[in-house]
Design brief:
Blueprint (H helix, E strand, L loop, with lengths): L2 H4 L31 E10 L2 E10 L5 E7 L7 H12 L3 E5 L14 H7 L6 H17 L3 E11 L1 H12 L5 E5 L15 H4 L7 E6 L7 H12 L6 E5 L16 H17 L4
Parallel strand pairs: 3-4, 3-5, 5-6, 6-7, 7-8
Antiparallel strand pairs: 1-2, 2-4
Helix pairs in contact: 4-5
Length: 278
């Protein structure tokens, strides 16, 4: 049994209200999606060692909805990620974002990014994340509203890396879209692999969306990943937006780039439709 299943946790029981403290002040161009015609709010996901909170949004009428897992950034399932779920629900999906940091603290209440990384993010085992995403799919299946045969995943920054890893973990996914997730890094017991390490094992088509001016993700690593993907058979691809920073989809932050974000969102929808998620 792995360390993460042996440990006893005090699990954060509720999601953040509003935006994480570390991202204040919020940009005036923030996008707000209403809940009209939706069922949206917090749910509890039974996991290997207790319940974790998640945000779920879906159409108010109907069933058999395609499912999208939404994987958060280092700021947890705060208002932006919840809004992304509502955007998917408006398109006819059941979108669900589990709080994957729940065992390690409430990142929404930490005001310093370095503190978030040192106190919480650096302690999260990839194996636990994979298990929690598996549990989230099981919850969706039992909800009676989901069609898990039409299953997609998307994620941002920290969650972008997880998209690649989860695609290698779960070949039942139809497709994924990874927004500016790190592709290389130092292997540790908690984070043994990075996307570059598992790229040639992928059986799931993944679209990577990256900024050409991302200071945290060297362009050469993106180009190397693209070459590896082109030698595979999944049809996976990477789009690089020139002169574009990290977190260009994050409309609540100064890094937001409207044109690139809107283009990426259109590409995501087309990708999911092409590969049977929609």
């Amino acid at each position: 049994m792995s360390d993460f299943t042996r440990r006893k946790f005090i699990i954060v029981s509720t999601l953040a209200a509003g935006f994480a403290l570390a991202v204040q002040p919020i940009s005036a161009q923030v996008i707000t999606t209403d809940t009209q015609g939706l069922v949206a709010g917090e749910v509890k996901i039974p996991s290997s060692d207790g319940e974790i909170p998640a945000y779920r949004a879906m159409p108010a009428t109907g069933e058999n909805f395609p499912v999208v897992l939404v994987v958060h950034e280092i700021f947890g399932v705060h208002e932006h990620i919840q809004d992304v779920c509502r955007r998917f629900a408006k398109l006819g999906y059941l979108a669900i974002a589990p709080e994957l940091f729940a065992r390690f603290g409430d990142v929404s209440q930490l005001s310093d990014v370095k503190e978030i990384i040192s106190k919480v993010v650096s302690k999260v085992p990839d194996a636990q994340v994979m298990s929690d995403l598996d549990a989230t799919i099981a919850w969706a299946d039992k909800s009676g509203k989901a069609n898990i045969n039409k299953l997609g995943i998307t994620g941002f920054c920290w969650g972008g890396r997880i998209v690649w890893l989860y695609a290698a973990h779960n070949p039942k996914l139809k497709a994924g879209v990874a927004w500016y997730g790190r592709l290389v890094g130092m292997s540790t017991p908690l984070t043994p692999d990075y996307p570059m390490d598992i790229a040639n094992l992928l059986q799931v088509p993944i679209l990577g969306l990256y900024g050409g001016s991302d200071e945290g993700i060297p362009l050469e690593t993106v180009e190397q990943m693209s070459i590896i993907l082109q030698s595979g058979t999944t049809g996976s691809d990477i789009i690089v937006y020139p002169n574009t920073p990290h977190a260009f989809f994050a409309d609540y932050r100064p890094s937001y780039r409207k044109k690139q974000a809107e283009d990426g969102w259109k590409r995501l929808q087309a990708w999911f439709k092409k590969y049977g998620v929609a």
